[in-house]
Amino acid sequence: MDYLFDNKIWLAPLAGYTDIVYRKICKSMGADVVMSEMISADALIYNNPKTKILTEFDEEERPIGLQIFGNDARKISEGIKILKEYHPDFIDINMGCPIRKIVKNNSGAALLKDINKIKQIISKAYSITGNEIPLTVKIRTGWDSDDNLLEIVKIIESEGASGIIFHPRTRNEMFLGKSNWDLISKVKENTKIPIIGNGDICTPEDAKEMFNQTKCDSIMVGRGAIGNPWIFKQIKNYLQNNSYYNILSPNRIEMIILHLEKIKKRVGSRKAIHLIRKFIASYTKGMRGASNLRQKCNQTKDEKQFIEYLLNFQPEVYPCPPLRFGRRAPQADKNNLENE
Ligand SMILES: Cc1cc2nc3c(=O)[nH]c(=O)nc-3n(C[C@H](O)[C@H](O)[C@H](O)COP(=O)(O)O)c2cc1C
Fold first, then answer.
1. For a substitution probing ligand 1, which of 68, 92, 167 has the most ligand atoms within 8 Å of its CB?
2. Is the pLDDT of residue 267 over 50?
């Protein structure tokens, strides 16, 4: 399964951001593996039409995984049966989502509190996927400590998962502080299945550092790719040649217009403006004069005017500074989590 796990650069699932349009943009910029955002097992079983949209992907996105979340082994395996019909390249189970709406329902990172349940979920899921389709599990360190981390990882491995995506923060840490990459090394040393390291990669230098420090098999980029799809090419250039091209501010403005065009083709002009807005802050981060541009773009619903604002914005030609994450993670679009 080298096509998934051997030195690959994955785009993280980001609810509200990594839809089919943005995944394809990232793919064209060098992302090796992409994933759907989390899809509710219950909603799949009830055939919720909004959920169906989340399962859509294009052939050109391959290899692509569909990610499921839920709180019960039977329902998750029923959901996986449904997902299998879409023929993704792998299926991932979410055991890391920290947000209240999900954990209060005992899904996502709440599962990390219950080792027996993890065992049941993976074992039942594997009875559906078998050797036909790889099964991965995306985890955090634990609920509030790393006490059970190695036990959890060993169970996931022994019950048949093909790989583990690991974001080394506990649920209670949410997105605070720095993720603890030493724990990625520890998990890697203690498992035979591939480990995809995730957490706080915002530059090509970070990516190289994660590979070198942790010896993980592949890496996954999340927030660092929002409004910054070039990061995948930059990482590849840096890993190969120790250098990469800087992306200049006008390139970013051009990309917003291209991105808008692509969304519009799928959902029409009005909805496209709504959907692109949440990316604009990231695309224009660090550009002088950008807050005025953002304000204007946020106020108009008219596509022509929206594009005019962008075209009239003449940013100075300079490379934007590398992204650094603040204390708050970008917010997922609530509607996308309403599907349970
Ligand atoms: C807005 C947002 C939405 C997310 N949605 C998902 C999701 O649907 N499934 C999932 O497993 N993780 C989700 N995550 C977590 C990311 O996949 C990733 O694990 C996390 O952001 C850490 O990686 P990063 O530091 O590279 O961003 C989300 C994170 C953010 C900020």
1. 167
2. yes
Provide residues with CB under 6 Å of ligand 1.
Answer: 12-17, 37-38, 67, 94, 96-97, 138, 167, 198-201, 221-224, 329-330, 332
Ligand 1 atom 22: residue of nearest CA: 199
- Residue among 97, 202, 216, 320 flagged as catalytic: 97
Domain boundaries, the chain: 2-245, 249-312
CB-based contact 59:74 (threshold 8 Å): no
State the distance between the two ends of the chain, measured CA to CA, in whole angstroms.
32
In this structure, the residue with its CA closest to atom 4 of ligand 1 is 14
pLDDT score, position 335: 44
Q: Over range 83-104, report the average pLDDT.
A: 98
202 tagged catalytic: no
- Predicted local confidence at residue 35, as pLDDT: 98
DSSP assignment of 190-233 equals: T-SS-EEEES---SHHHHHHHHHHH--SEEEESGGGTT-TTHHH
Task: Domain 2-245: give its CATH code.
Answer: 3.20.20.70
- Average pLDDT value for residue range 47-64: 96
CATH number of 249-312: 1.10.1200.80
pLDDT reported for residue 318: 65
- Mean pLDDT on 221-236: 97
Ligand 1 atom with the smallest distance to the CA of 179 is: 25
Residue of 329 and 262 predicted with greater confidence: 262
Task: In whole angstroms, give the CA distance from residue 293 to residue 98.
Answer: 33
Residues facing residue 81 across a β-bridge: none
pLDDT at 287: 87
Residue 321 is predicted with a pLDDT of 64
Give the burial string for 93-102 (b: 16+ CB within 10 Å, else e). Answer: bbbbbbbeeb
Handedness of CA 115, 118, 122, 125 (dihedral sign): positive
Q: What is the pLDDT of residue 288?
A: 85
Cα-to-centroid distance, 12 and ligand 1 (Å): 6
